[in-house]
Amino acid sequence: MASSVESQITDAESAEKMTRLSVLSAVSRLGWAFNMVVLPLFAIAIGQDEAFYGLMVAAAGYVQSAVLFPAGTFSDQAGRGKAILIGTVASGLCLFALPFTSGLWSLGVYALTGIGNGFTSTSVNSLVADYTEKGEERTRSYGVTQAAATLSGTVAPFLGGYILDPVAAPFLDALFIPGVESGLTRFALIFFIMGFIRMLTGFYGVRTERWLKKNCVIQFPDEFEEGAELEYLEDSAANDAKTSLLFGVNSLIMGISSGMVVPYLIPWINKAFTTDPVVLGSVPAVSNLILASGTLFVGFSSERIGKLRLVFLLYLMAPILTLGLVWAPYFLLMVVFYIVRMAVANMARPATHSLFMGEVTSSRRGRSWAVNRIMWTFPRQTGTLLTSFILSAGVFGGIVPFGELFFPIAMSLYPLSVLPMYIAVRRNEQRRKEILALKDNGVT
User: Fold this and answer.
1) Which of 424, 435, 427, 365 is closest to 225 using CA atoms?
2) Is the pLDDT of residue 116 over 50?
């Protein structure tokens, strides 16, 4: 009877842990999910074009790259909650200021949001890993938390498109905000909502970490027990650095490919099919619904199928679906390709995140994740910047013919990016066997 009650208490704590982590991930994603639709339209509203939008995205990414490692170090030493709070307050203040700017000021203020992103991104993912055990629980946890985040992200593009559409929301024509141009009041409302949600994320992050420290204790396995986690073996900064760099090569390859394509998909659709804002916002919203189901599937099945095998199969589909997207003759067919492409390209995250967190020492997760994110963010913004320069030069005659040619080519790098992850995992497996062999032979 006692064991039954104990089991119920454990199950209840586990459920609450997952709920708190899922809510944190969901609120964090919601604060930025508006960007996909709102930011490119904001650039046009202030008299700029797709190339300027690309500069805004790239500038924020470069700033994020610059702060990722110190942010990860701070997260490891001071705590995940404090890092999340600092990041969300910083980015929230920038978003509050953004509608009062134009031209280069808009570029500069939006670039500063990268500081907040650097602190937040290193800590939310590390917090999930800190309080889950390697293997099925951690992969499942990433699947659930990222599904929750994706579902919350469904609301933002649709709501953003609705607020911006004068036909769908005519009552907002009367909105007046002192200091904001009349043509930008709808954008200001969205940026204020984003800023508020960002700050809310910070305070909830602090509360979540406090609750986890008080209620959740991970039982570490014996140091050299057969089957013990790699992250609980020897405390080796050198090995963590090598592992992070190998996973970082994967991020580098994907980053430059993603940067040339993903930020420009919505502007490409807008130019190719000339849709209303509310329709434009509904496309990524529906895509997120499918993606949420996909992340749950990966989270619950990748341990059985094999993380690396599943990731490779998903990435192999990305260039094929992108080709269908840019050459689809009808809007609805293009939407189908867009939705499926976004799903297969992103639903691998529970597997890749769980895989990485299990291959580095737990005490250095923030810094290790920062290295990985730097090698993703810097190339991604470089890809975005490269596309921006190409579009501004007018070499290909605009974003539509450019996308038809280069989007599928760029996406073909995705399956190649799995190789360095495979090398990192095999290397660590061999290292672990060598350590166990030394122990068996009485060498310490």
Assistant:
1) 435
2) yes
